[in-house]
Write a structure and sequence with these properties.
The complex is a heterodimer of chains A (103) and B (510).
Chain A (H helix, E strand, L loop, with lengths): L1 H6 L2 H15 L2 H15 L2 H16 L6 H14 L3 H16 L5
Helix pairs in contact in A: 3-6, 4-5
Chain B lengths: L6 H10 L2 H12 L3 H10 L12 E4 L5 E3 L4 H9 L3 E4 L5 E3 L4 E3 L2 H16 L14 H9 L24 H11 L2 H8 L15 H12 L10 H10 L11 H16 L16 H6 L1 E9 L5 E8 L2 E3 L32 E3 H9 L2 E2 L6 E2 L6 E2 L1 E9 L3 E6 L2 E3 L4 E3 L3 E3 L3 E3 L5 H4 L4 H9 L5 E12 L4 E9 L3 E6 L2 E5 L1 H6 L2 E8 L6
Parallel strand pairs in B: 8-14, 9-17
Antiparallel strand pairs in B: 1-2, 1-3, 3-4, 4-5, 6-7, 6-13, 10-13, 11-12, 14-23, 15-16, 18-19, 19-20, 19-23, 20-21, 21-22
Classes of the chains: A mainly alpha (103), B alpha+beta (510).
Chain lengths: 103, 510
């Protein structure tokens, strides 16, 4: 693995390290849960659910797969996440990282 | 979609059972223990591109992780003819022969049970899942077809309270409590589990729970709170009898009894065993920071104390008596003389500024400095370390001194919305630069909205309490014992407030 690691660009290794830290500490799950709550609260989830239901209704349940659905709703889903939610998550990740020794 | 999976999954289950799913789900999705998380962090990468990528899937047939994005899991499935894989974020099973995720009742149950077990041990959070009514619940709903819909004009939640003999001090607090949004949510969601099982009719929290039911039942005739009064008399003896009582004293006594009766119910939090987690402390408790600065070495000693309310002096015209001896802000002992000079009007913000400004403790009240090791003159400053979800401001209108007792009728203007940022410890701390910037970013988080005002009419010897409460976000009502009448926001803001109740507009996530 050492050889392989050396060949990867620096920021990619950093990204992996951060990801590992987030998983190891359980912070990733906590943040995911938080994000889930925030997205429910701001109505994002309901809005997307309606959108997904419309697609399913239009095509018929037999002709839609989860992957189709993901591909179709992702652009809208990404674009409609409120800035405040993104900002909050970023701030929380920053705070978490600043508390981690050796990063 | 159904919960019977697909032919491929069924055939897989007959050959290998549910064990492969069970293992993958327990080790790599729940990963409840520290070691499991470590393992997950180190081994969950795509075996083809060697990267930690989103939507990683684990093959159910062999030990293989592949990412979905670069279609490495698809490739594995095709080459090895391993058609089933588990999504490692959510635990859904992908069948590559069907080309979609499939749902199997048995596997879903395993996943749910594992999560529940881990949640019970406090290792992971239980996922919020939609309400799935049981057959008993469905039957109940069918037997009671009447649904109540709250509209702008509905009066549900408004109910007068009969005065049982100078009990307006209690009635006004009950009105304020029943219109505290978070408390209402707690009780209407039936969250209280009585801790006094053998003596449940003595539990004040149960009584409050019943009171909420009464208030939100839609009944319009006034409620007679005799059971509540009896419980208050039993549990707070100093309030027993038909004399006039102080509403503020009742409020604090009521919180204290409720808090004690909640004890035992999730009273210990993970981080601090001394920290109470009862609904009263969750809603009403804030942290007051007291910084004592030695005037000699500038060394600061800090203590943080919990509080349920903030008692505010209304200030006096004579620009603070010369001897600066108002050490004990908790009592009004500091101002025995010259009390006739109360200003005609002041503002809540001014009162708070006075409350949080640095104060010279004077030469007669030297405090031992930890650094100097001798008694030194010092200054003391109170600031808000932690804001409560509901802030109760008590305006000290009743003045008790050795010479006389009197009521101060100074007009105190208070806003509909209050920003507490400038009274926070993080703001006032000279050396807390980092805290300062964080407070800056989250200053929206310190905004409060008014939802109840308790007023006292009359003199200190005899008077009457009434209360304004907010309903439906912006409608105001005046509660005068059994009488409820509509009020305007202006009337509320113009009133001579005694207790002001504000709730936070933005709630932090725990």
């Amino acid at each position: 693995m050492a050889d392989l690691d050396d060949k990867k660009p620096r920021d990619m290794r950093m990204k992996e390290k951060i990801n590992q830290k987030l998983i190891e500490t359980g912070e990733k799950e906590r943040l995911k849960e938080l994000l889930r709550t925030q997205l429910i609260e701001c109505g994002w989830r309901d809005e997307l659910k309606v959108h997904a239901k419309e697609i399913v209704k239009e095509r018929g349940i037999e002709n839609v797969t989860v992957d189709n659905l993901i591909a179709e709703v992702t652009p809208k889903a990404r674009a409609s996440v409120p800035d405040a939610v993104k900002k909050d998550l970023l701030q929380r990740i920053r705070t978490f990282l600043s508390q981690q020794p050796g990063l | 979609m159904n919960l019977d999976g697909c032919a491929h999954l069924r055939s897989f289950k007959t050959r290998k059972g549910t064990e492969p799913f069970r293992i993958v789900h327990s080790y790599f999705i729940i990963a409840a223990s520290q070691e499991a998380r470590k393992r997950k962090a180190n081994s969950c990468y795509c075996h083809m591109c060697k990267q930690h990528r989103p939507r990683l899937h684990a093959c159910l047939h062999c030990v293989f992780f592949g990412c979905h994005g670069a279609r490495h899991i698809h490739e594995h499935a095709r080459v090895k003819q391993h058609n089933l894989a588990v999504d490692l974020s959510y635990g859904a099973v992908m069948c590559f022969s069907c080309g979609d995720y499939v749902y199997d009742r048995e596997l879903e149950t395993i996943a749910r049970d594992q999560r529940r077990k881990a949640a019970k041990n406090g290792q992971v959070k239980e996922l919020c899942c939609p309400w799935d009514p049981t057959s008993a619940e469905i039957e109940l709903l069918q037997r009671n077809p009447k649904r109540r819909k709250i509209t702008e004009s509905s009066t549900i939640g408004l109910r007068g309270l009969i005065n049982l003999g100078n009990t307006c001090f209690m009635n006004c607090i009950v009105q304020a409590l029943t219109h505290t949004p978070l408390l209402r949510d707690y009780f209407l969601a039936d969250r209280h589990n009585c801790q006094m099982e053998d003596n449940a009719n003595m539990c004040l929290v149960c009584e409050l729970s019943r009171l909420f039911q009464e208030f939100y039942s839609g009944v319009r005739v006034p409620h007679i709170p005799f059971r509540l009064l009896h419980l208050v008399w039993t549990h707070a003896r100093h309030l027993a009898g038909y004399e006039q009582q102080d509403a503020h004293e009742f409020f604090i006594a009521a919180l204290d009894v409720i808090h004690r009766h909640c004890k035992g119910q999730n009273s210990e939090s993970e981080t601090n065993p001394h920290h109470c987690n009862c609904i009263i402390d969750q809603i009403f408790t804030g942290g007051l920071q007291s910084d004592v600065t030695c005037q000699h070495c500038r060394c600061v000693s800090t203590t943080i104390d919990p509080f349920w309310d903030i008692s505010l002096d209304l200030g006096s015209d004579d620009a603070r008596n010369n001897n600066n001896d108002t050490v004990n802000r908790g009592t009004s002992s500091g101002k025995l003389n010259g009390c006739d000079n109360h200003p005609e009007s002041t503002t809540l913000t001014d009162c708070l500024k006075r409350f949080t400004r640095a104060e010279h403790l004077g030469s007669s009240a030297k405090i031992k400095c930890n650094a100097c090791q001798i008694n030194r003159e010092s200054t003391k400053q109170l600031t808000m370390k932690k804001l409560p979800l509901v802030a109760c401001f008590h305006l000290k209108r009743f003045e008790h001194s050795t010479r006389y007792h009197k009521k101060i009728s100074t007009y105190v203007s208070f806003p509909q919305y209050l920003d507490m940022t400038s009274f926070m410890s993080s703001r006032r701390n000279d050396n807390g630069y980092i805290n300062g910037t964080i407070a800056e970013i989250n200053s929206d988080n310190n905004r409060y909205a008014l939802f109840a005002v308790v007023n006292h009419l009359g003199t200190i010897e005899s008077g009457h309490y009434t209360c304004y409460i907010r309903q439906h976000k912006d409608q105001w009502f005046k509660c005068d014992d059994a009488l409820i009448s509509k009020a305007t926001l202006q009337q509320v803001l113009d009133s001579e407030g005694y207790l002001l109740f504000y709730h936070k507009q933005f709630l932090e996530y725990e």
